[in-house]
Amino acid sequence: MRRSRAFIPTTKEVPSDATLPSHQFLVRGGFINQQGAGLYNFMPLGKIVLEKIRKIVKEELDKAGCNEVQLSFVTPISLWDKSGRSDTMGKEMLRIQDRHQNDFVLSPTNEEAMVELVKNRVTSYKDLPVNLYQINTKFRDEARPRYGILRGREFLMKDGYSFHSSKEDMIREFNLMQETYKKIFTRLGLDFRVVDADSGAIGGTGSKEIHVLANSGEDTIVVCDTCDYGANIETIFEDEAQVDAYNEKSYEELTKLELEQKCSCGSSLSFKKGIEVGHIFQLGTTYTSALEANFSDENGKPKPFEMGTYGIGVSRLVASVIEQNHDENGCIWTKETAPYTVNIMVSNIKDEAQVTLGEELYLKLLGENVEVMFDDRKERFGFKMKDAELIGFPYTVIIGKELANGLVQIYDRKTTEKTSVKTGDVFSTIMELI
RNA sequence: CGGGGUGUAGCUCAGUAUGGUUAGAGUACCUGGUUUGGGACCAGGGGGCCGAAGGUUCGAGUCCUUUCACCCCGACCA
Fold first, then answer.
1. What's the ipTM?
2. Which listed residue, A253, A262, A338, A365, has the most CB atoms within 10 A of its CB?
3. What residue spans in chain A does CATH classification 3.40.50.800 cover?
4. Residue A315's closest CA among A151, A188, A186, A110?
5. Which nucleotide has its C1' atom closest to residue A143's CA?
Protein backbone atom coordinates (compact mmCIF):
# COMPACT_ATOMS: atom_id res chain seq x y z
CA MET A 1 0.00 0.00 0.00
CA ARG A 2 1.21 3.46 -0.83
CA ARG A 3 0.81 5.72 2.16
CA SER A 4 -0.32 8.53 -0.12
CA ARG A 5 -3.35 6.42 -1.04
CA ALA A 6 -4.07 4.94 2.38
CA PHE A 7 -6.86 6.10 4.67
CA ILE A 8 -4.97 6.26 7.94
CA PRO A 9 -5.97 9.39 9.84
CA THR A 10 -3.28 9.72 12.52
CA THR A 11 -3.25 12.53 15.04
CA LYS A 12 -0.76 14.12 17.36
CA GLU A 13 -3.48 15.03 19.83
CA VAL A 14 -4.47 12.59 22.54
CA PRO A 15 -8.23 12.01 22.63
CA SER A 16 -9.55 13.49 25.87
CA ASP A 17 -11.60 10.46 26.89
CA ALA A 18 -8.91 7.81 26.42
CA THR A 19 -7.03 6.78 29.55
CA LEU A 20 -5.35 3.54 28.52
CA PRO A 21 -2.35 3.37 26.16
CA SER A 22 -4.13 0.96 23.84
CA HIS A 23 -7.12 3.25 23.57
CA GLN A 24 -5.01 6.33 22.96
CA PHE A 25 -2.69 4.76 20.42
CA LEU A 26 -5.41 2.91 18.51
CA VAL A 27 -7.34 6.15 18.13
CA ARG A 28 -4.28 8.31 17.42
CA GLY A 29 -2.90 5.76 14.98
CA GLY A 30 -6.10 5.76 12.97
CA PHE A 31 -7.01 2.16 13.79
CA ILE A 32 -10.41 2.81 15.37
CA ASN A 33 -12.77 5.65 16.12
CA GLN A 34 -15.66 5.96 18.48
CA GLN A 35 -19.19 5.96 17.15
CA GLY A 36 -21.06 6.07 20.45
CA ALA A 37 -20.70 4.78 24.00
CA GLY A 38 -18.99 1.40 23.66
CA LEU A 39 -19.36 1.48 19.89
CA TYR A 40 -16.33 1.63 17.63
CA ASN A 41 -15.58 1.74 13.94
CA PHE A 42 -12.59 -0.15 12.66
CA MET A 43 -10.74 1.88 10.06
CA PRO A 44 -8.41 0.20 7.53
CA LEU A 45 -5.50 -0.47 9.88
CA GLY A 46 -7.75 -1.69 12.67
CA LYS A 47 -9.67 -3.88 10.27
CA ILE A 48 -6.45 -5.49 9.02
CA VAL A 49 -5.33 -6.33 12.57
CA LEU A 50 -8.77 -7.63 13.48
CA GLU A 51 -8.81 -9.91 10.43
CA LYS A 52 -5.31 -11.17 11.16
CA ILE A 53 -6.31 -12.21 14.64
CA ARG A 54 -9.53 -13.72 13.37
CA LYS A 55 -7.57 -15.75 10.82
CA ILE A 56 -5.19 -17.17 13.41
CA VAL A 57 -8.08 -18.11 15.68
CA LYS A 58 -9.83 -19.82 12.79
CA GLU A 59 -6.76 -21.68 11.59
CA GLU A 60 -5.99 -23.18 14.99
CA LEU A 61 -9.60 -24.11 15.72
CA ASP A 62 -10.04 -25.75 12.34
CA LYS A 63 -6.86 -27.73 12.94
CA ALA A 64 -8.36 -28.91 16.22
CA GLY A 65 -11.43 -30.22 14.43
CA CYS A 66 -13.89 -27.43 15.08
CA ASN A 67 -16.57 -26.42 12.54
CA GLU A 68 -17.10 -22.76 11.77
CA VAL A 69 -20.68 -21.58 11.47
CA GLN A 70 -22.41 -18.22 11.58
CA LEU A 71 -25.56 -17.72 13.59
CA SER A 72 -27.97 -14.85 13.11
CA PHE A 73 -27.07 -11.84 15.23
CA VAL A 74 -30.71 -10.97 15.85
CA THR A 75 -32.48 -13.74 17.73
CA PRO A 76 -36.13 -14.15 18.77
CA ILE A 77 -36.69 -13.60 22.48
CA SER A 78 -38.51 -16.93 22.73
CA LEU A 79 -35.10 -18.60 22.51
CA TRP A 80 -34.07 -16.81 25.69
CA ASP A 81 -37.36 -17.42 27.45
CA LYS A 82 -36.82 -21.17 27.20
CA SER A 83 -33.52 -21.07 29.07
CA GLY A 84 -34.68 -18.42 31.49
CA ARG A 85 -31.94 -16.01 30.49
CA SER A 86 -34.33 -13.37 29.17
CA ASP A 87 -34.81 -12.67 32.89
CA THR A 88 -31.39 -13.47 34.35
CA MET A 89 -29.36 -11.51 31.81
CA GLY A 90 -31.51 -8.50 32.40
CA LYS A 91 -30.74 -5.25 30.66
CA GLU A 92 -27.48 -6.48 29.25
CA MET A 93 -29.51 -8.03 26.49
CA LEU A 94 -30.55 -5.33 24.05
CA ARG A 95 -34.14 -5.98 23.07
CA ILE A 96 -35.65 -4.69 19.88
CA GLN A 97 -38.97 -5.02 18.10
CA ASP A 98 -39.65 -5.58 14.45
CA ARG A 99 -42.51 -4.03 12.48
CA HIS A 100 -44.89 -6.68 13.79
CA GLN A 101 -44.02 -5.78 17.38
CA ASN A 102 -42.27 -9.13 17.83
CA ASP A 103 -39.46 -9.07 20.37
CA PHE A 104 -35.86 -9.82 19.47
CA VAL A 105 -32.48 -9.75 21.15
CA LEU A 106 -29.08 -8.76 19.79
CA SER A 107 -27.02 -11.85 20.66
CA PRO A 108 -24.81 -11.36 23.72
CA THR A 109 -23.73 -15.04 23.52
CA ASN A 110 -25.17 -18.04 21.77
CA GLU A 111 -25.59 -21.11 23.97
CA GLU A 112 -29.31 -21.34 23.32
CA ALA A 113 -29.07 -20.80 19.58
CA MET A 114 -26.26 -23.31 19.28
CA VAL A 115 -28.16 -25.94 21.26
CA GLU A 116 -31.21 -25.37 19.05
CA LEU A 117 -29.01 -25.77 15.98
CA VAL A 118 -27.68 -29.14 17.10
CA LYS A 119 -30.90 -30.40 18.66
CA ASN A 120 -32.69 -32.95 16.45
CA ARG A 121 -29.90 -32.75 13.90
CA VAL A 122 -27.35 -34.63 15.95
CA THR A 123 -29.41 -37.50 17.30
CA SER A 124 -27.05 -40.39 18.01
CA TYR A 125 -24.04 -40.95 20.23
CA LYS A 126 -22.35 -42.10 17.00
CA ASP A 127 -22.41 -38.53 15.72
CA LEU A 128 -20.68 -37.16 18.79
CA PRO A 129 -18.62 -35.28 19.64
CA VAL A 130 -19.17 -32.17 17.59
CA ASN A 131 -17.60 -28.76 18.12
CA LEU A 132 -19.11 -25.66 16.47
CA TYR A 133 -17.87 -22.11 16.63
CA GLN A 134 -18.42 -18.73 15.10
CA ILE A 135 -16.52 -15.46 15.03
CA ASN A 136 -19.27 -12.94 15.11
CA THR A 137 -20.50 -9.65 16.49
CA LYS A 138 -21.86 -9.69 20.03
CA PHE A 139 -23.78 -6.99 21.82
CA ARG A 140 -23.94 -6.55 25.55
CA ASP A 141 -25.56 -3.41 26.81
CA GLU A 142 -23.06 -2.86 29.60
CA ALA A 143 -23.98 -0.35 32.25
CA ARG A 144 -20.69 1.40 31.77
CA PRO A 145 -18.61 0.60 28.71
CA ARG A 146 -15.03 1.87 28.98
CA TYR A 147 -11.42 1.49 27.97
CA GLY A 148 -12.09 1.71 24.24
CA ILE A 149 -12.43 -1.67 22.58
CA LEU A 150 -11.32 -3.46 25.74
CA ARG A 151 -14.84 -3.18 27.09
CA GLY A 152 -17.15 -2.13 24.31
CA ARG A 153 -20.81 -2.90 24.06
CA GLU A 154 -20.51 -4.21 20.53
CA PHE A 155 -17.52 -6.47 20.02
CA LEU A 156 -16.18 -9.33 17.97
CA MET A 157 -16.02 -12.61 19.81
CA LYS A 158 -15.27 -16.17 18.91
CA ASP A 159 -17.71 -18.40 20.71
CA GLY A 160 -17.42 -22.17 20.48
CA TYR A 161 -19.67 -24.93 21.77
CA SER A 162 -18.99 -28.64 21.94
CA PHE A 163 -21.45 -31.48 22.43
CA HIS A 164 -20.61 -34.86 23.91
CA SER A 165 -22.09 -38.17 24.90
CA SER A 166 -20.18 -38.28 28.19
CA LYS A 167 -18.63 -36.00 30.72
CA GLU A 168 -15.25 -37.66 30.17
CA ASP A 169 -15.34 -36.82 26.50
CA MET A 170 -16.38 -33.26 27.25
CA ILE A 171 -13.40 -32.90 29.60
CA ARG A 172 -11.11 -34.29 26.89
CA GLU A 173 -12.38 -31.59 24.50
CA PHE A 174 -12.05 -28.96 27.22
CA ASN A 175 -8.39 -29.86 27.55
CA LEU A 176 -7.96 -29.86 23.78
CA MET A 177 -9.43 -26.36 23.65
CA GLN A 178 -7.09 -25.24 26.41
CA GLU A 179 -4.12 -26.44 24.35
CA THR A 180 -5.55 -24.88 21.20
CA TYR A 181 -5.98 -21.57 22.98
CA LYS A 182 -2.37 -21.70 24.11
CA LYS A 183 -1.30 -22.15 20.49
CA ILE A 184 -3.41 -19.21 19.41
CA PHE A 185 -2.08 -16.81 22.03
CA THR A 186 1.46 -17.99 21.47
CA ARG A 187 1.15 -17.31 17.76
CA LEU A 188 -0.18 -13.86 18.54
CA GLY A 189 3.04 -13.23 20.42
CA LEU A 190 1.37 -12.59 23.76
CA ASP A 191 2.56 -13.19 27.31
CA PHE A 192 -0.44 -14.95 28.85
CA ARG A 193 -1.49 -17.30 31.64
CA VAL A 194 -4.21 -19.90 31.89
CA VAL A 195 -5.85 -19.50 35.28
CA ASP A 196 -8.54 -21.20 37.35
CA ALA A 197 -11.70 -19.15 37.27
CA ASP A 198 -15.14 -18.71 38.65
CA SER A 199 -17.88 -20.05 36.41
CA GLY A 200 -20.07 -17.02 36.99
CA ALA A 201 -23.58 -16.63 35.74
CA ILE A 202 -23.18 -18.83 32.68
CA GLY A 203 -23.17 -21.91 34.90
CA GLY A 204 -21.17 -25.09 34.78
CA THR A 205 -18.33 -26.47 36.84
CA GLY A 206 -14.74 -26.38 35.63
CA SER A 207 -13.72 -23.11 34.05
CA LYS A 208 -10.48 -21.49 33.07
CA GLU A 209 -9.64 -18.02 31.90
CA ILE A 210 -6.78 -16.96 29.68
CA HIS A 211 -5.29 -13.66 30.72
CA VAL A 212 -2.91 -11.44 28.85
CA LEU A 213 -0.55 -9.97 31.42
CA ALA A 214 -0.74 -6.19 31.43
CA ASN A 215 -0.41 -3.52 34.10
CA SER A 216 -3.74 -2.06 33.16
CA GLY A 217 -5.64 -5.34 33.36
CA GLU A 218 -8.95 -5.27 35.21
CA ASP A 219 -8.50 -8.66 36.82
CA THR A 220 -6.10 -9.67 39.55
CA ILE A 221 -4.58 -13.09 39.18
CA VAL A 222 -1.94 -15.09 41.02
CA VAL A 223 0.63 -17.10 39.13
CA CYS A 224 3.26 -19.58 40.20
CA ASP A 225 6.83 -18.42 39.82
CA THR A 226 7.98 -21.73 38.37
CA CYS A 227 5.19 -24.00 37.16
CA ASP A 228 2.31 -22.91 34.95
CA TYR A 229 -0.33 -22.75 37.69
CA GLY A 230 -2.41 -19.62 37.88
CA ALA A 231 -5.74 -18.56 39.35
CA ASN A 232 -8.08 -15.62 39.32
CA ILE A 233 -8.15 -14.30 42.90
CA GLU A 234 -11.92 -14.74 42.83
CA THR A 235 -11.23 -18.46 43.23
CA ILE A 236 -8.62 -18.06 45.96
CA PHE A 237 -10.36 -15.84 48.46
CA GLU A 238 -13.82 -16.75 49.66
CA ASP A 239 -14.45 -13.32 51.06
CA GLU A 240 -15.63 -10.89 48.39
CA ALA A 241 -14.32 -7.92 50.31
CA GLN A 242 -10.88 -9.49 50.23
CA VAL A 243 -11.10 -9.88 46.44
CA ASP A 244 -12.16 -6.26 46.11
CA ALA A 245 -9.30 -5.11 48.31
CA TYR A 246 -6.80 -6.76 46.01
CA ASN A 247 -8.55 -5.59 42.87
CA GLU A 248 -8.26 -2.01 44.02
CA LYS A 249 -4.52 -2.18 44.35
CA SER A 250 -2.37 -0.88 41.54
CA TYR A 251 -0.03 -3.09 39.60
CA GLU A 252 2.96 -1.65 41.45
CA GLU A 253 1.41 -2.30 44.84
CA LEU A 254 0.45 -5.83 43.92
CA THR A 255 3.86 -6.87 42.71
CA LYS A 256 5.29 -6.03 46.13
CA LEU A 257 2.85 -8.32 47.91
CA GLU A 258 3.42 -11.95 48.61
CA LEU A 259 0.82 -14.61 49.04
CA GLU A 260 1.14 -16.77 52.15
CA GLN A 261 -0.10 -19.79 50.28
CA LYS A 262 2.39 -21.75 48.25
CA CYS A 263 1.72 -23.36 44.93
CA SER A 264 1.18 -27.14 45.02
CA CYS A 265 4.58 -27.46 43.34
CA GLY A 266 6.16 -25.73 46.36
CA SER A 267 7.11 -22.44 44.72
CA SER A 268 5.72 -19.11 45.79
CA LEU A 269 2.83 -17.39 44.11
CA SER A 270 2.85 -13.79 42.96
CA PHE A 271 0.21 -11.29 41.91
CA LYS A 272 -0.30 -10.04 38.39
CA LYS A 273 -2.85 -7.97 36.53
CA GLY A 274 -4.50 -9.56 33.55
CA ILE A 275 -6.89 -8.86 30.71
CA GLU A 276 -9.31 -11.71 30.21
CA VAL A 277 -9.11 -12.64 26.54
CA GLY A 278 -10.40 -16.19 26.71
CA HIS A 279 -12.66 -18.26 28.89
CA ILE A 280 -13.44 -21.96 28.63
CA PHE A 281 -16.19 -23.76 30.52
CA GLN A 282 -17.27 -27.27 31.27
CA LEU A 283 -20.95 -26.55 30.99
CA GLY A 284 -22.43 -29.99 31.51
CA THR A 285 -26.11 -30.40 30.76
CA THR A 286 -27.44 -27.10 32.11
CA TYR A 287 -28.62 -25.80 28.77
CA THR A 288 -29.25 -29.07 26.97
CA SER A 289 -31.56 -30.22 29.77
CA ALA A 290 -33.43 -26.93 29.85
CA LEU A 291 -33.87 -26.97 26.09
CA GLU A 292 -34.49 -30.72 25.96
CA ALA A 293 -31.66 -31.37 23.57
CA ASN A 294 -31.12 -35.11 23.68
CA PHE A 295 -29.30 -37.81 21.77
CA SER A 296 -29.77 -41.57 21.84
CA ASP A 297 -27.11 -43.46 23.75
CA GLU A 298 -25.84 -47.01 23.09
CA ASN A 299 -29.03 -48.42 24.59
CA GLY A 300 -31.33 -46.15 22.64
CA LYS A 301 -32.11 -44.09 25.72
CA PRO A 302 -32.43 -40.29 25.33
CA LYS A 303 -29.78 -38.30 27.21
CA PRO A 304 -29.00 -34.59 27.23
CA PHE A 305 -25.72 -33.62 25.57
CA GLU A 306 -22.76 -32.88 27.77
CA MET A 307 -21.68 -29.45 26.69
CA GLY A 308 -18.58 -27.29 26.77
CA THR A 309 -18.30 -23.63 25.78
CA TYR A 310 -15.26 -21.63 24.77
CA GLY A 311 -14.83 -17.93 24.12
CA ILE A 312 -12.14 -15.61 22.78
CA GLY A 313 -12.50 -11.84 22.72
CA VAL A 314 -11.20 -11.11 19.24
CA SER A 315 -11.64 -7.33 19.20
CA ARG A 316 -10.45 -7.18 22.80
CA LEU A 317 -7.28 -8.91 21.66
CA VAL A 318 -6.50 -6.03 19.31
CA ALA A 319 -6.28 -3.73 22.32
CA SER A 320 -4.60 -6.37 24.49
CA VAL A 321 -1.67 -6.68 22.09
CA ILE A 322 -1.05 -2.96 22.50
CA GLU A 323 -1.57 -2.92 26.27
CA GLN A 324 1.24 -5.43 26.44
CA ASN A 325 3.37 -4.03 23.61
CA HIS A 326 3.81 -0.28 23.44
CA ASP A 327 6.14 2.51 24.48
CA GLU A 328 5.66 6.24 24.90
CA ASN A 329 5.69 6.74 21.13
CA GLY A 330 3.03 4.26 20.14
CA CYS A 331 2.15 0.73 19.16
CA ILE A 332 4.60 -2.15 18.86
CA TRP A 333 2.74 -4.87 16.96
CA THR A 334 3.85 -8.46 17.21
CA LYS A 335 4.92 -10.33 14.10
CA GLU A 336 1.54 -11.95 13.45
CA THR A 337 -0.58 -8.94 14.36
CA ALA A 338 1.21 -6.09 12.58
CA PRO A 339 -0.99 -4.47 9.94
CA TYR A 340 2.09 -4.13 7.73
CA THR A 341 5.39 -5.80 8.43
CA VAL A 342 7.64 -3.38 6.60
CA ASN A 343 7.39 0.35 6.12
CA ILE A 344 9.56 1.96 3.48
CA MET A 345 10.15 5.58 4.28
CA VAL A 346 11.58 8.01 1.78
CA SER A 347 13.11 10.78 3.83
CA ASN A 348 13.12 13.45 1.17
CA ILE A 349 10.54 12.92 -1.53
CA LYS A 350 12.25 15.50 -3.74
CA ASP A 351 15.39 13.40 -3.91
CA GLU A 352 14.94 11.31 -7.03
CA ALA A 353 17.49 8.69 -6.05
CA GLN A 354 15.65 8.08 -2.78
CA VAL A 355 12.29 7.78 -4.50
CA THR A 356 13.65 5.45 -7.16
CA LEU A 357 15.18 3.11 -4.61
CA GLY A 358 12.02 3.21 -2.53
CA GLU A 359 9.84 2.31 -5.50
CA GLU A 360 12.17 -0.47 -6.49
CA LEU A 361 12.27 -2.00 -3.02
CA TYR A 362 8.52 -1.58 -2.59
CA LEU A 363 7.73 -3.48 -5.78
CA LYS A 364 10.28 -6.16 -5.02
CA LEU A 365 8.81 -6.81 -1.56
CA LEU A 366 5.29 -6.76 -2.96
CA GLY A 367 6.45 -9.40 -5.42
CA GLU A 368 7.40 -11.59 -2.47
CA ASN A 369 3.98 -11.03 -0.90
CA VAL A 370 5.49 -9.07 1.94
CA GLU A 371 2.95 -6.82 3.67
CA VAL A 372 4.62 -3.54 2.92
CA MET A 373 3.71 0.12 3.29
CA PHE A 374 5.49 2.70 1.13
CA ASP A 375 5.54 6.10 2.78
CA ASP A 376 5.72 8.28 -0.32
CA ARG A 377 4.11 11.32 1.26
CA LYS A 378 5.58 14.77 0.86
CA GLU A 379 6.39 15.14 4.53
CA ARG A 380 9.54 15.68 6.51
CA PHE A 381 11.68 13.01 8.12
CA GLY A 382 10.56 13.63 11.68
CA PHE A 383 6.89 13.67 10.82
CA LYS A 384 7.08 10.35 9.02
CA MET A 385 9.18 8.72 11.73
CA LYS A 386 6.74 9.76 14.46
CA ASP A 387 3.93 8.44 12.34
CA ALA A 388 5.69 5.12 11.76
CA GLU A 389 6.36 4.78 15.48
CA LEU A 390 2.79 5.60 16.38
CA ILE A 391 1.40 3.02 13.97
CA GLY A 392 4.05 0.51 15.02
CA PHE A 393 5.37 -1.13 11.87
CA PRO A 394 7.88 -3.78 13.05
CA TYR A 395 10.49 -2.58 10.54
CA THR A 396 10.96 0.73 8.76
CA VAL A 397 13.48 1.05 5.96
CA ILE A 398 14.76 4.61 6.07
CA ILE A 399 15.96 5.80 2.69
CA GLY A 400 17.59 9.08 3.51
CA LYS A 401 20.78 11.01 3.81
CA GLU A 402 22.99 7.93 4.05
CA LEU A 403 22.03 6.98 0.52
CA ALA A 404 24.88 9.17 -0.67
CA ASN A 405 27.20 6.58 0.90
CA GLY A 406 25.23 3.72 -0.59
CA LEU A 407 23.50 2.95 2.70
CA VAL A 408 19.96 2.81 4.04
CA GLN A 409 18.85 2.16 7.62
CA ILE A 410 16.54 -0.45 9.02
CA TYR A 411 14.68 0.78 12.08
CA ASP A 412 13.50 -1.90 14.48
CA ARG A 413 10.35 -0.66 16.23
CA LYS A 414 10.78 -2.94 19.22
CA THR A 415 14.42 -2.19 20.01
CA THR A 416 14.22 1.30 18.41
CA GLU A 417 17.66 0.64 16.95
CA LYS A 418 18.69 1.75 13.50
CA THR A 419 21.04 -0.45 11.54
CA SER A 420 22.81 0.71 8.41
CA VAL A 421 22.71 -1.67 5.48
CA LYS A 422 24.17 -1.44 1.98
CA THR A 423 21.49 -0.65 -0.58
CA GLY A 424 22.31 -3.87 -2.39
CA ASP A 425 21.71 -5.93 0.75
CA VAL A 426 18.55 -4.34 2.07
CA PHE A 427 16.15 -6.66 0.30
CA SER A 428 17.82 -9.85 1.52
CA THR A 429 18.26 -8.42 5.02
CA ILE A 430 14.57 -7.62 5.25
CA MET A 431 13.61 -11.05 3.97
CA GLU A 432 15.73 -12.61 6.68
CA LEU A 433 14.28 -10.43 9.42
CA ILE A 434 10.63 -11.12 8.71
C1' C B 1 -28.73 1.82 38.14
C1' G B 2 -26.79 5.69 42.17
C1' G B 3 -23.20 10.05 42.48
C1' G B 4 -20.33 13.75 39.81
C1' G B 5 -18.91 16.27 35.27
C1' U B 6 -18.75 17.99 30.13
C1' G B 7 -21.17 19.42 25.34
C1' U B 8 -18.27 26.01 21.47
C1' A B 9 -14.05 24.73 14.32
C1' G B 10 -11.89 17.85 12.25
C1' C B 11 -9.12 17.56 17.28
C1' U B 12 -7.57 19.89 22.30
C1' C B 13 -9.76 23.84 24.71
C1' A B 14 -10.69 29.46 26.23
C1' G B 15 -15.07 32.60 26.52
C1' U B 16 -20.53 31.54 30.43
C1' A B 17 -19.62 34.31 37.22
C1' U B 18 -21.82 40.09 35.92
C1' G B 19 -26.38 38.89 28.74
C1' G B 20 -24.30 43.79 24.65
C1' U B 21 -20.15 45.18 17.79
C1' U B 22 -18.76 40.46 13.10
C1' A B 23 -17.46 34.08 18.81
C1' G B 24 -11.56 33.12 19.91
C1' A B 25 -6.63 30.34 20.49
C1' G B 26 -3.54 26.15 19.46
C1' U B 27 -3.47 22.21 16.23
C1' A B 28 -5.27 20.12 11.67
C1' C B 29 -6.72 21.67 6.55
C1' C B 30 -6.01 24.89 1.70
C1' U B 31 -2.57 28.50 -1.29
C1' G B 32 2.34 30.61 -2.05
C1' G B 33 7.38 30.79 -0.56
C1' U B 34 11.55 29.03 2.35
C1' U B 35 13.14 24.41 4.46
C1' U B 36 14.30 18.85 4.23
C1' G B 37 17.20 13.30 9.78
C1' G B 38 12.88 13.54 14.75
C1' G B 39 5.50 15.82 14.29
C1' A B 40 9.60 22.90 10.59
C1' C B 41 9.21 28.45 9.44
C1' C B 42 6.89 32.95 7.17
C1' A B 43 2.62 35.08 4.77
C1' G B 44 -2.34 34.60 3.28
C1' G B 45 -7.02 31.71 3.45
C1' G B 46 -11.38 28.41 4.28
C1' G B 47 -14.00 26.23 8.16
C1' G B 48 -19.13 27.31 13.69
C1' C B 49 -27.31 26.78 13.76
C1' C B 50 -21.97 27.61 20.60
C1' G B 51 -25.60 19.39 21.48
C1' A B 52 -31.23 19.95 20.54
C1' A B 53 -36.12 22.15 21.64
C1' G B 54 -38.78 25.77 24.10
C1' G B 55 -38.79 30.24 27.22
C1' U B 56 -37.18 35.25 29.51
C1' U B 57 -35.20 39.78 27.11
C1' C B 58 -34.69 45.35 22.88
C1' G B 59 -30.67 41.68 22.69
C1' A B 60 -28.76 34.80 24.69
C1' G B 61 -22.68 30.82 23.71
C1' U B 62 -23.83 33.32 28.52
C1' C B 63 -30.11 33.35 32.30
C1' C B 64 -34.57 29.64 32.99
C1' U B 65 -37.14 24.88 31.65
C1' U B 66 -37.11 20.37 29.12
C1' U B 67 -34.41 16.87 26.49
C1' C B 68 -30.35 14.19 24.14
C1' A B 69 -25.35 12.68 24.02
C1' C B 70 -20.68 11.63 25.97
C1' C B 71 -17.06 11.10 30.09
C1' C B 72 -15.49 9.93 35.23
C1' C B 73 -16.30 7.24 40.32
C1' G B 74 -19.18 3.27 42.18
C1' A B 75 -22.51 -0.98 41.57
C1' C B 76 -22.66 -4.50 37.55
C1' C B 77 -19.72 -7.37 34.00
C1' A B 78 -19.50 -15.66 30.13
1. 0.93
2. A338
3. 342-433
4. A151
5. B76
